[in-house]
Amino acid sequence: MSQPFTESTVLSNGVKMPWLGLGVWKVKDDGEVERTVASALELGYRSIDTAAAYNNEEGVGAAIRNSGLARDEIFVTTKIWNANQGYDTTLAAFEESRRKLGLDEIDLLLIHWPVKGKYTETWRALEKLYKDGAVRAIGVSNFQIHHLKDIEASGEIKPMVNQVEYHPLLSQTELRAYCESNGIQLEAWSPLMQGNLDQSALADIGAKYGKSAAQIVLRWDLQNKVVTIPKSTNPARMQENAAIFDFELTADDMAQIDGLNRNQRFGPDPDNFNF
C-alpha cells in the first residue's frame, strides 16, 4: 500500500500539494485545535487547512512548531477573510496570519470568498505576496467559472487552486472540467456532506470493498483528481479517512456515485452570500 500522506498532486507552478489533508473549520483554539493537529501530524498527515476566519491559526502554528517535523514537511493553507479584502488590507491580513501561525512562509494562500468589487484587488495582493516569495502558491476558494475568468482577465497569474464545496450531491462537473483544462487544482471542502452520508449507493459500494461510506466518497474525490481535506477531531476517524489508498473504484462505481448529484449545497452559494 502506498503511503497516503506523501501522495501529492503537482500544482501548475511545480509545488507539490498532498491529495489528502486535514481541515480545521470550527475546531476551537482553546487547546482543541492544537491537540487535533498534533494527532493528525502524528498519524502522518502532512497538510493542514486553516483560515483567518476560523480563529485558530495560533493553535495550528503551535502544533506545527511542537511536532518536531521539519517545516518543509508540512503543507499549510490559510485564507484571507472577506472583511479584509482589497489590496492593502489583504497584505496586512496576511502579515497577521503569518504572525499567528508563527511561520515565515505559507504554502498556499487563498481568497476565502469572491467578495463583489473586491476580489480582483485582493488577487493583485496575492500575486505580490507570491512574487515576493512569502507564499509558495496562491489560489481561491468558492469561485465559480465567471469569478475565475475575472481574475484571469485582470491578473497576471492564474490561481493554482480553487477550493469549493464538492461532494457526490454537488459534483460541480462544469467547474471541475474548467479548472482541469486551465491547470487549476480543484480542492473539496465539506467532502463528507457534513455527515449526510446515508445514501444506499455509498453503502452498497462500501460493502463490496469493506469500506465506510466516507471512505468511498473520499476515494471518489481522489479518482476525480480532487484534493480533499475532511475535518475531524477524532484520531480514529482521521485514520479511517486516510485508509483510501489501498483500493480502487471501478468505472461503474464512479458512475453510480456521479449519479447521486442533485446540485445540493450544505454551505452558502458563492453567487449569493452576504458576509
UniProtKB/TrEMBL annotation:
It comes from the Bacteria. Transmembrane segments: none annotated. Keywords: NADP, Oxidoreductase. Residues 20-261 form the NADP-dependent oxidoreductase domain. The keyword Transmembrane does not apply. InterPro entries: AKR (IPR020471), AKR5G (IPR044500), Aldo/ket_reductase_CS (IPR018170), NAD(P)_OxRdtase_dom_sf (IPR036812), NADP_OxRdtase_dom (IPR023210). CDD domains: AKR_AKR5G1-3 (cd19157). Gene3D superfamilies: NADP-dependent oxidoreductase domain. Belongs to the aldo/keto reductase family. This is Diketogulonate reductase-like aldo/keto reductase.
